[in-house]
Structures are given as structure tokens and as C-alpha cells.
Design goal:
7-stranded mixed β-sheet; 7 strands; alpha/beta; Rossmann fold; about 290 residues
């Protein structure tokens, strides 16, 4: 056998193994998705027995991490769209957050992230003169948050009392939210809580302006901490998402259409495996680009 023939034979053998491996990986991924969807169905059945009007049952994923898109839609359906404005602090690179879907529904707002790469990735998809989405690259602290938001929100509205505020910065979330609530009154709050600590445990990280997440359990604050804070400023807990990532609070003046349950029943433990649940093909910024051109 010639050298060329030998190489060709090796390439043929390798390609068969490679394609076979791809097939096996695709099969495993398909099975994993089936299992995750079954787990979501099981969890919702469990929720339905204990809290039948819990709006986590309306949850689904478009661009959110797990089921936040559906929960937000359910809340907005109950209280009305208002001015259709939002602020998301910790927006990531835009491919997975709580307000991407809202922009595609005609909402306006502000995306804030401390990672320059994330903001630059989003900016590549946006027309220079878009009037729907303001991007801010800034590390947010309790000292600067109100000033930063007041400067950026003027392109959307006159104050930072928007319809939806989402906070997910993996560290000083409690302190940043408290600073905002001292000066404004968003209608709906979505905040990441540390689901490791069940209700009514009250634990939060010590404040440090430079705090970042070190990929361990020392991050954010427990659900009980956020519930106490939000109750002080006139908000009630209406649900937590299935994976135990986010808690949702609504202004007490807009609770008429909600069935409220005690926080200990709404608390969801950490089930971060649900983050692997897919809603279709990989996310892109292309629909965002198309929408913001008009």
C-alpha cells in the first residue's frame, strides 16, 4: 500500500469514528433534553398540588435561563404592560437574560453589564440609532447604581421607576436593590437569590464594592433576606422560578389579580441542572438586530 493510500485509509477510518461520536453525542443530548422536560413536568405537577394558582406554572423559556420569560409574561398579563420599560442589571452578552424577549415584543429599556466583552458583543448587533435599547458597560455598586441608571434611562423615560427591574450580578444584589428602592418604585422586581439556603434562613454576603463571584456558594442573599427587604418597600413575593434562580416581587398596589402564598411555599431549592434545558437552536442577536432597525 502506498503512503497516500495509507493516509486515505486512516482518514476514512477516523471520519467514521468522528461521525459516529457525533451521532452518539447528539443521541445523549436528545435523551438529556427528554429527561429535563420530564423533570419540569414533574416539578410543575408537584407545584400544582400545593399551590395551584402559582404563576411558576406559566413559566417557559425563550431567551431566559430557565422559565423566567413565561413567568414575566404571566405577571405582565395580570398587571398590564404600563409603559413597557425595563432595566436589567447583569444582562450578560444578551443571548440569555430576562428581557431579550421583551425587546422583541416592543419594550424599551437599559442593559447593564460590568463585562466589556459582553456589551461589545451586543453592540455589534445593534444599529447606531436604535431607540429601544441602551447599553451600559459599568460595574454596579450601591454607591453608583442610582446615578448610572438616572443618566442612562433618560433616553427611555424620565425616571428609573420602570415596569420591570431585573438584578443578577452574583454578589452585591441585595445592596444594589436596596439602593434602587430607596429612590424609585419599579412595578415588578426579578432578583437572583441564593437557593442553597431555604426559607426562612437569612444569609447574605458582606458588602464590598469590588465583589465578584468566585464560583462558590458565597454569593448574593437568601430568599428570606430579599423578602424582608422587599416587604419593607411595599412589595410581595409572587413566585420563584423552578430552578431556584430568581424570585419575583410585585408592587403591593398591583396585587389584585394574584393568589398569594407564603414564602416558604413559594421558595424553590437549587435545581441548576434545569439551566441546560433548551428552547430551540442556539440563541443569536439577529432577531434583535432586525427588530431594532425599525
Amino acid at each position: 500500500m502506498s503512503v497516500l493510500s495509507s493516509i486515505q485509509e486512516h482518514l476514512k477510518t477516523w471520519s467514521k469514528k468522528f461521525l459516529s461520536a457525533i451521532g452518539r453525542n447528539a443521541f445523549r443530548e436528545s435523551i438529556a433534553q427528554v429527561v429535563l422536560h420530564q423533570e419540569v413536568a414533574r416539578l410543575k405537577a408537584e407545584v400544582r398540588l400545593l399551590t395551584p394558582e402559582n404563576i411558576v406554572l406559566d413559566g417557559y423559556k425563550i431567551y431566559s435561563q430557565v422559565d423566567e420569560d413565561g413567568i414575566i409574561e404571566s405577571i405582565i398579563n395580570k398587571i398590564g404592560e404600563g409603559e413597557k420599560t425595563f432595566i436589567e442589571i447583569g444582562c450578560g452578552d444578551g443571548s440569555e437574560n430576562n428581557t431579550h424577549a421583551l425587546v422583541l415584543k416592543g419594550w424599551k429599556g437599559v442593559w447593564v453589564d460590568g463585562n466589556r466583552g459582553n456589551i461589545e458583543k451586543i453592540r455589534k448587533h445593534l444599529p447606531a440609532d436604535n431607540s429601544f435599547l441602551v447599553l451600559i458597560n459599568q460595574m454596579i455598586t450601591r454607591e453608583n447604581v442610582v446615578h448610572v441608571l438616572q443618566q442612562s434611562i433618560t433616553e427611555i423615560r424620565n425616571d428609573i421607576s420602570v415596569d420591570l427591574l431585573s438584578v443578577d450580578i452574583d454578589g452585591n444584589d441585595f445592596y444594589v436593590l436596596e439602593a434602587i428602592l430607596l429612590s424609585s418604585k419599579p412595578r415588578v422586581l426579578c432578583v437572583e437569590y441564593n437557593a442553597k439556603f431555604p426559607y426562612p434562613m437569612e444569609l447574605m454576603v458582606e458588602y464590598s464594592p469590588l465583589r465578584g463571584w468566585e464560583r462558590d456558594d458565597y454569593q448574593g442573599a437568601s430568599l428570606a433576606c430579599f423578602t424582608r427587604l422587599c416587604e419593607r418597600y411595599g412589595y410581595s413575593l409572587v413566585t420563584c422560578n423552578l430552578s431556584g434562580n430568581n424570585a419575583f416581587f410585585v408592587n403591593d398596589q398591583e396585587l389584585d389579580n394574584f393568589t398569594l402564598y407564603p414564602p416558604e411555599q413559594l421558595y424553590r431549592p437549587a435545581r441548576y441542572d434545569l439551566i441546560e434545558l433548551k428552547s430551540g437552536h442556539p440563541a443569536s442577536g439577529k432577531y434583535l438586530r432586525d427588530h431594532l432597525q425599525y
